[in-house]
Amino acid sequence: MNILILGSGGREHTLAWKINQSKRLTKLFVAPGNAGTADIATNIPIGVNDFAAIKKAVIEHAINMVVVGPEDPLVNGVHDYFLKDSELRKVPVIGPQKAAAELEGSKEFAKEFMKRHNIPTASYASFTADSLYKGYAFLETLKAPYVLKADGLAAGKGVVILNNLDDAKKELKHMLVDAKFGEASATVVIEEFLSGIELSVFVLTDGVGYKVLPTAKDYKRIGEGDTGPNTGGMGAISPVPFADEALMDKILYRIVEPTIEGLKKDNLPYKGFIFIGLIKVGNEPKVIEYNVRLGDPETEVVVPRIKNDMIDIFDAVANEDLDGVELSIDERSASTVMLVSGGYPGTYNKGKEITGLKSIEDSLVFQAGTRIEDGKVLTNGGRVVAITSYGKDFEEALNTSYGNIEKIHFDGMNYRKDIGYDL
Ligand code: AMP
Ligand code: GLY
Asked: Do 241 and 306 contact (CB within 8 A), yes or no?
């Protein structure tokens, strides 16, 4: 089979690495890809939202399946575009259709879905500029901290948590009236604050059955001890040690199954990954958010633990035969540490030469913001490279990653030295 992956991050390099091991692969393409994917696949320089260019590439390269990495093209309807096109209809797309992608595209939609299907989550209300004063009144009924969420996609920046009521009111006005996040904050969801430890569960569904993939925990803040601004993710571990059988049972019966059944009841066509962001409040799991894709850098620890042939799995998703697949998961733990550009998640420089990548033997190197120029690998984004290792536990895996990081260098390189510190 010829496969096309859409995206350019560490998630997509990891998927490419995994698909590249399949006996069923003929040719692998990544659009637009990075320097890491260029090593193992053919990069096609087109954007993930340029559907016409994607169509051209699919026909030109006789692509048999498209695997979508990021959420934007899904929310923009890439899967529907394929289904509506007579030349593309027979090419399966791994990723939900637009109507279902609203689970990530609209926080209000996701909250209504959870309410309808009795899925545990924070209580909430949503507001627009017309109901600003009702929003103020609602905030007054809550206790600090106040959680404000832009309804639409805001590149991971749309959640604001404030400790002071006046600040929360100002922020609500800023989001609704001054369009702080543009169209994305035309509606704002205000939520009850939940206190607990977070974890992520990844589910793959073909719309009929589903498989629960390994759990993971990511570290979103830039600073050690979970301080400073949010990033796309600075590291991750899998499995999550506190996700024991009792907790997983609750997650399965109260959250995963009602989610899959809810998609069917609501007629939301879904063939792809569901990323369920959870928080454990006391002993009770609650949903913080749905994403309609794999997480990054969670993919860098989840996918390396899947032992099955990835094309077998995706083919089963396309053919609605996932129940016929038996997942085989590596018993070892996996940990990843993200190397980022100095200044990230604020402003940073690109184009710094990265050295030492080839000298690493006992870790997996998954590239994110990188590109090639004159045979040199250069930084090309905030998150640059993820170093993943296996171990008997996440600490052993982390030690291997931290040891290998010493061999890598680029100007301004930064990373968190405390991944897993809270476990
Ligand atoms: P999200 O973009 O929905 O993943 O939210 C970003 C982060 O905000 C989450 O990972 C949580 O750490 C935090 N968060 C979101 N919603 C809540 C909530 N209701 N209570 C406490 N923390 C939250
Ligand atoms: N690591 C969080 C995300 O992919 O959204």
From this structure: no
DSSP 192: -
Ordered domains of the chain (ranges, CATH): 2-97 (3.40.50.20), 123-191 (3.30.1490.20)
User: 233, 215, 255, 212: which is closest to 339 by C-alpha?
Assistant: 233
SS3 290: strand
Q: Yes or no: say if 341 and 414 are a contact pair by the CB < 8 Å rule.
A: yes
Rounded to whole angstroms, the Cα distance separating 350 from 340 reads 11
Query: How much of the chain, in percent, has pLDDT values that exceed 70?
Result: 100
Q: What mean pLDDT, rounded, does the chain reach? A: 96
- Residue to substitute in 108, 124, 151, 159 for testing ligand 1 pocket (most ligand atoms within 8 angstroms of CB): 159
Q: Which atom of ligand 2 is nearest to the CA of 293?
A: 4
The dihedral sign for the CA sequence 103, 107, 108, 114: positive
- What residue owns the CA closest to ligand 1's atom 7? 159
- Retrieve residue 180's tokens: 């702080």
Confidence of residue 355 (pLDDT cuts 50, 70, 90): very high
Q: How many angstroms separate the most distant Cα atoms in the chain?
A: 60
- Using alpha carbons only, give the angle 327, 333, 339 rounded to the nearest 5 degrees: 115
pLDDT at 229: 87
Residue 360's CB is within 10 A of a number of other CB atoms, namely 19
Distance, in Å, from the CA atom of 315 to the CA atom of 139, rounded to the nearest integer, reads 48
Q: Residue 216: name the closest of 304, 153, 292 by CA.
A: 304
Question: How many residues are listed for the chain in this entry?
Answer: 423
pLDDT at 157 over 90: no
Residue nearest to atom 3 of ligand 2 (CA): 295
Say if residue 156's pLDDT is above 90: no
DSSP code string of 13-77: HHHHHHHTT-TT-SEEEEEE--HHHHHHSEE----TT-HHHHHHHHHHTT--EEEE-SSHHHHTT
C-alpha–C-alpha distance, residues 348 and 368, integer Å: 15
- Encode pLDDT of 32-65 as tens digits: 999 999 999 999 999 999 999 999 999 999 999 9
Say how far apart CA 161 and CA 191 lie, in whole Å.
10
Instruction: Work out whether the CA dihedral 314, 317, 319, 325 comes out positive or negative.
Output: positive
423: tokens are 């476990």
Condensed to tens digits (0 to 9), the pLDDT of residues 252-274 reads 999 999 999 999 999 999 999 99
pTM: 0.96
Instruction: Kindly give the number of the ligand 2 atom that is closest to the alpha carbon of 294.
Output: 4
